[in-house]
Design goal:
With 300 residues, the chain is an alpha/beta fold. It is built from ten helices and eleven strands. Helices cover 36% and strands 16% of the residues.
Length: 300
């Protein structure tokens, strides 16, 4: 297939990166790259462009493993180049482990040196680094020493209160935004997406430091449970209501293969630049009339 040519919208060399950068609009995690649109860089970029995807998150490491060693891993040079040529931002992600925190940090640093136009990094912190505040502190110190200006988002549990042994403070003190995995696995109701997103958002708003909030939704199936288009519709609607600027989905190849109807729905849903809704007006219509009457007696 021949794909149309688009004018490049993203610079090829990193200039000055700002740590206040957030992912753009709608995005996908990329895992097992060889199985994602058959590993074809042009096809992936073209399909993402057609779907209005603002960012892709590539698997740059898994603990001590590099992007070439992870499951289905490939050199990302062509994928990043093709996506950026169509104006799609490229981020990296990877899981961190207590036993290999230093090697994991090395892989991240190496990836940003090898792929200098990556925008930022999503740090996947889950069970393998629970109960390891010293390792989390050392990991973040190493990353910030070598990548001082790279935006880092914390990708972890949707409800921190259920996971007090994760080093939240140590990670979040050096991260720039939260991007939790709001996965409502085994919840079958139509409102699971909207209710759990709001619950997660509310919980993170009460944490210190207070960081910008993005979110990742599930787009997969496990045995008889699967995510429905109705649940994702509610997730999208709630995200817009909350003014969340970026939403991710886990994970492209699995969704396209196993949930094609859901995949098409997500791809077709317009989620670009979200305008944060203004606060509700504190005055009722009657109060506004009384105020106007009071300020302008000449109209009596």
């Amino acid at each position: 297939m021949t794909y149309p040519t688009y004018l490049p919208l993203v610079q090829k060399e990193r200039t000055t990166m700002a740590r206040n950068r957030l992912p753009r609009g709608k995005g996908w995690y990329i895992w097992i790259l060889k199985d994602t649109v058959n590993g074809d860089p042009k096809a992936l970029a073209y399909n993402a462009k057609q779907a209005g995807v603002g960012h892709l998150v590539f698997h740059i490491h898994n603990g001590y493993q590099s992007e070439l060693q992870v499951s289905g891993g490939m050199d990302l040079t062509n994928h990043i180049r093709e996506a950026e040529a169509l104006g799609i931002e490229c981020w990296g992600w990877g899981a961190v482990y207590k036993s290999t925190w230093s090697q994991g940090a090395d892989r991240v640093i190496e990836a940003f040196k090898k792929y200098p136009t990556l925008v930022g990094y999503l740090l996947d912190a889950e069970a393998p680094i629970k109960g390891a505040p010293a390792e989390a502190t050392a990991l973040m110190k190493k990353l910030r020493t070598y990548l001082p200006n790279i935006p880092i988002g914390l990708s972890s549990y949707r409800y921190p209160r259920y996971h007090p042994d994760l080093p939240w403070k140590e990670f979040r003190s050096q991260c720039d935004f939260d991007i939790p995995q709001v996965y409502w696995e085994q919840c079958f109701g139509d409102t699971c997406g909207s209710v759990q997103l709001r619950g997660s958002y509310t919980e993170f708003q009460g944490m210190l430091p207070k960081l910008p909030y993005c979110a990742t939704a599930p787009a997969y199936k496990v045995n008889s449970w699967f995510v429905s288009s109705t649940q994702i519709q509610g997730f999208f609607a709630e995200a817009k209501t909350l003014g969340i600027t970026a939403v991710n989905f886990w994970v492209w190849y699995h969704t396209e293969l196993n949930l094609p109807v859901l995949f098409k729905y997500i791809q077709a849903y317009p989620y670009g630049d979200v305008v944060i809704p203004p606060p509700p007006d504190p005055l009722t219509l009657e109060e506004k009339v009384d105020k106007l009457w009071e300020i302008h007696p000449e109209i009596h």
